Amino acid sequence: MRRNRVVKIISTLIMLFFLANAVYALLLWGRSTGVAGAIFNLLTVVSCGAIACCMFAWLYLPGLIDSLFLMRPTRSRPAPLLSPVEALIRQTRYGEALERLNLLIEAGPEFPTAWIMRFDLLRGPLGQQEEALKSVEKYFIRPKRLRSEGNAKLALRYAELAGELGRQDEAIRLLTAELHRLGTGYSKTERRYLGSMLAHLRDESRTGRPETRGGTDVA
């Protein structure tokens, strides 16, 4: 937490440095008499101003950055058909349901809905909580993913289970990485939920005991 604040302070100072240079060059540009000097000052204004604006957006407008950097604007294939898996689960044929989910995820790993269903199956009926956590970790280390509300749901499910198992530090690392990652497409509401869960996990990690949490479920 302290490290993130230090990085933000240093980055803000650098942003202000470029902004000051842009303003100073703008004043000089207005007073320039030679063509070469005017062009140099104009280039300085544009370059330093652009850098300052980009740093401001990165530091204080993460939602805007997400909207500009689309990780995958279109789906390369149709979403997996999950109704057969749901039918197997209703029939308590959990092993077959897991096998079907594994095949669907292997064929289309970019769709978070199948990962969510597998996580719930592993955590619940199959009682394989460690495998459930590993499954989510495999999803979030992927370099590309769809911009979907399922990403936030999966991250919150992971954080909740990790907290129950006393593995808050792992969940803190995952949520922190997600909130700082560009192009995730999280909405302001989802970012608020993730931030609330992150603060809750840090409190638990600091005190060493579970705390009551509410209002962070987007499922």
What report would you give on this structure?
With 219 residues, the chain is mostly helical. 72% of the residues lie in helices and 0% in strands. It has ten helices and no strands. Helix 5 (94-107) packs antiparallel against helix 6 (112-123), helix 6 (112-123) runs antiparallel to helix 7 and helix 9 runs antiparallel to helix 10 (188-207). The longest helix has 30 residues, at 2-31. The protein starts with a helix and ends in a 12-residue tail after the last helix. Mean pLDDT is 81; it is low at 64-75 and 211-216.
Radius of gyration: 23 Å
- Total strands: 0
Distance between the termini: 27 Å
Low-pLDDT ranges: 64-75, 211-216
How are the elements arranged and paired?
Layout: H1 2-31, H2 35-60, H3 62-68, H4 83-90, H5 94-107, H6 112-123, H7 129-140, H8 149-164, H9 168-180, H10 188-207
Helix pairs in contact: 1-2, 4-5, 5-6, 6-7, 6-8, 7-8, 8-9, 8-10, 9-10
